[in-house]
Write a structure and sequence with these properties.
459 residues, alpha+beta, Rossmann fold, Uridine Diphospho-n-acetylenolpyruvylglucosamine Reductase, domain 3, six-stranded mixed sheet, 18 strands, 19% strand, globular
Length: 459
């Protein structure tokens, strides 16, 4: 055992409150934002976030605006009192506060996970209207350790064990999440509140052993006694995130160098280019190609993506499906496209303006004739559902026709406008009027394919 790792419990560490200099350093990067949202539940952690942020604003010349969001999950009788506490505190500090309510039916199992997902979606919906650029969360050092341990019990690899990032540009529900307290122990947050005689709300469910987080919190104390402190766990998580960033960088280069994306949806790669990669990159490349083809985040079980990889290595010809995608090997080429299955693309009717279709394409519609779109029903949908004579289409060489069944098509009552994905198409209706159509694939994601799932047996 290393001399730096104790083999017996040490004396408890005494944590001091956050000083002005500490707070200024924690929030220094916020000067680049014009509007942000603070997520505050009323517990000690988020109450300290609110108080510390107010202190920082008071001492600095930040010319931005801040809103506070508090979510009432409607799971406990006292939840409305807690949101009321947050509202009163915000009023005293001069911050606008908004209460977001989770009104959906609550699941019988997986309640905490469902509440988390609902919370992020409620916040995302609010930010789409308010214009805040990021959400600030009060996750701290002890939360980071619990997240690491939770994912370790699930058999996570490098991606999962990276735990939480201090700045997550593409977080849940598309949110940018900022976590200034990730290196701060919870005891320091409590000490900061006590030094200011600031009260907070206590959520009894945080100590309820029926929840995994509560049990992990208890285990963390025993691990710290043996030298595996929250700080050491956080250091390991940071190293994992650094390794993940390196993998993502290499994976992006492999994708751009070897994968061809047809503008209408399908993808292909030469088999020799695929098999030349190390196994970890092959697995993640398959996941990424499936996600790009389907427009859906794909989190396969490890054994399934490993089996698909082995099938690709062994086969010369054949087809397999996974995650809503069809994968075909044909003449030393691997092709991937969206399968016409249960997750069928929607058909949008009477569209105008701009938007996203099937999580794969961005469109923009502009009428050059001011009244044209008012009298013409422009539709966007998949090729298989469009009023198109497929026999007369000039099919792209080297691609199977089936690969384009879910490709985007614009049409009106007068017939198809275009059947290929391209930029700045100018179409003129023989009955009069013009329409400027721009259609393009969603850009390559800054956050690449995530982790695969494992069960307790590692498969």
């Amino acid at each position: 055992m290393s001399a730096n790792v104790p083999n017996a419990p040490e004396k408890p560490v005494q944590y001091s409150e956050l000083r002005d200099g500490d707070i200024d350093q924690l929030f220094a990067s916020f000067k680049g934002f014009s509007k942000i949202a603070l997520a505050v539940s009323g517990g000690a952690d988020s109450t300290c976030l609110l108080i510390a942020f107010h202190d920082w604003v008071s001492r600095n010349n930040w010319d931005g605006t801040c809103e506070v969001l508090t979510v009432d999950h409607q799971l406990r009788p006292e939840s409305s009192q807690e949101t009321g506490f947050v509202q009163d505190l915000c009023n005293s500090l001069g911050f606008a506060c908004f209460v977001l309510k989770w009104k959906d039916e609550k699941p019988a199992s997986g309640l905490q996970e469902a509440a988390r997902d609902a919370r992020y979606q409620l916040i995302s919906d609010h930010l789409s209207q308010s214009g805040s650029e990021a959400v600030v969360l009060a996750h701290h050092l002890d939360d980071q350790a619990e997240t690491f341990l939770d994912r370790l019990t699930r058999g996570s690899g490098i991606y999962g064990l990276g735990a939480m990032a201090p700045d997550e540009p593409n977080g849940p529900a598309g949110l940018r999440l900022i976590r200034p307290f990730l290196d701060v122990p919870k005891e320091s947050l409590i000490a900061t509140l006590e030094a200011r005689n600031q009260v907070w709300c206590e959520d009894s469910s945080n100590q309820d052993p029926k929840y995994k987080r509560s049990r992990l919190r208890k285990i963390s104390g025993h691990l710290a006694d043996e030298g595996l402190s929250a700080k050491r766990i956080a250091t390991t998580a940071r190293q994992m995130r650094r390794t993940r960033a390196a993998i993502e960088s290499v994976l992006a280069h492999i994708f751009f160098d070897h994968v061809e994306e047809h503008p209408a949806g399908p993808l292909r790669i030469q088999k020799h280019a695929f098999t030349a990669q190390a196994e970890e990159f092959r697995l993640r490349l398959l996941i990424l190609m499936i996600e790009r083809a389907t427009g859906r985040a794909h989190l396969p079980k490890l054994r399934k993506i490993e089996a698909l990889d082995q099938w690709v290595l062994a086969q010369k010809n054949g087809r397999q499906t996974l995650g809503g995608a069809m994968l075909e090997i044909k003449r030393d080429v691997i092709l991937v496209w969206k399968e016409v299955g249960r997750a069928r693309p929607d058909t949008l009717e009477a569209i105008s303006g701009s938007g996203c279709w099937d999580n794969r394409f961005l469109y923009r519609i502009g009428a050059l004739d001011a009244n044209y779109l008012n009298k013409t029903q422009l539709c966007l949908g998949p090729l298989y559902n469009a009023p198109v004579d497929q026999q007369s289409l000039p099919w792209p060489e080297g691609w199977p026709k089936e690969a384009f069944e879910c490709s985007p098509v614009f049409w009106t009552g007068n017939g198809a406008v275009c059947v290929r994905s391209a930029a700045s198409l100018l179409w003129q209706d023989p009955h009069g009027g013009q329409c400027d159509i721009t259609l393009q694939r969603i850009p390559f994601p800054p956050k690449l394919a995530g982790n695969y799932r494992t069960d307790l047996k590692g498969s």
